[in-house]
Amino acid sequence: MSQDQWSAVDRYITDLLVPQDEALKAALASSAAAGLPAINVAPNQGKLLHLLAQTAGARRILEIGTLGGYSTIWLARALPPDGRLISLEADPKHAEVARGNIAAAGLSGVVDIRLGKALESLARIEAEKLPPFDFIFIDADKAGLPDYFAFALKLARQGTLIIADNVVREGGVIDSNNADPNIKGVRRMNELIAAEPRVSATAVQTVGVKGYDGFALIRVIA
């Protein structure tokens, strides 16, 4: 198996099951034109997030890490008419591009993009005493995963589904001696999840146009 074959299979799946509309295409194009890194989820992964949020019956979604708003659009479209999505972004340029993409997709009335460091934004959300979120997608810096997971638990309810992206790191996650802060962050989050009786979780390896990685699925059960 090779990267070429993984990518070809992803294209086959996307062409058949994930038709891209103009808003999603435009979001990717404007992000690329602005020089944003091409680290957004793949189209079939965006559709997976969309289906998971719908299956969870999500009315309130929290996204940690906006980038250009590609995954934000997928998630926002899973909400009912009265649903809301808050997305956190630390980079002003990324937030500006994302707001434009969200507006072009007709979702400005649904999505609230908050600029600032994620931990500071999460603390403000906690202080606002908002209703708990039904679905939380964590796709920010991996060194911060332990803290993001801890906050996600505070902002969740029984039944909330938490998804953390990029948790396999091309297999690097199994190397306990790896000094990469991203890998250390993933491993520490996994340890916290394993020791947390309030959640039930697993992780899945993935291959495709984004290479070899994976995501964690965490359901709050108590």
Could you describe the 3D structure shown?
- With 222 residues, the protein is an alpha/beta fold.
- It has one domain (3-220): Rossmann fold (3-Layer(aba) Sandwich), CATH 3.40.50.150.
- 43% of the residues lie in helices and 20% in strands.
- It is built from eight helices and seven strands.
- It has helices spanning 3-17, 22-33, 43-55, 70-76, 92-104, 118-128, 145-154, 181-195, and strands at residues 60-64, 84-89, 111-115, 135-138, 161-165, 199-208, 211-220.
- The protein has a seven-stranded mixed beta sheet, with helices on both faces.
- Strand 2 (84-89), helix 5 (92-104) and strand 3 (111-115) form a beta-alpha-beta unit.
- The longest helix has 15 residues, at 3-17.
For the structure shown, list the relevant keywords.
single chain; alpha/beta; 222 residues; 7-stranded mixed β-sheet; Rossmann fold; 43% helix
Q: How is the secondary structure organized here?
A:
Blueprint: H1 3-17, H2 22-33, H3 43-55, E1 60-64, H4 70-76, E2 84-89, H5 92-104, E3 111-115, H6 118-128, E4 135-138, H7 145-154, E5 161-165, H8 181-195, E6 199-208, E7 211-220
Parallel strand pairs: 1-2, 1-4, 2-3, 4-5
Antiparallel strand pairs: 5-7, 6-7
Order of strands, main sheet, comes to: 3-2-1-4-5-7-6
| Strand-pairing-aware structural class | alpha/beta
**Roughly what fraction of the amino acids lie in strands?**
15-25%
Overall average pLDDT:
97
Instruction: Briefly note the CATH topology name.
Output: Rossmann fold
Q: What is the global morphology? A: globular
Biggest sheet statistics = 7 strands, mixed
What letter string, H or E per element, gives the SSE order?
HHHEHEHEHEHEHEE
Number of contiguous helices: 8
> What's the number of structural domains?
1
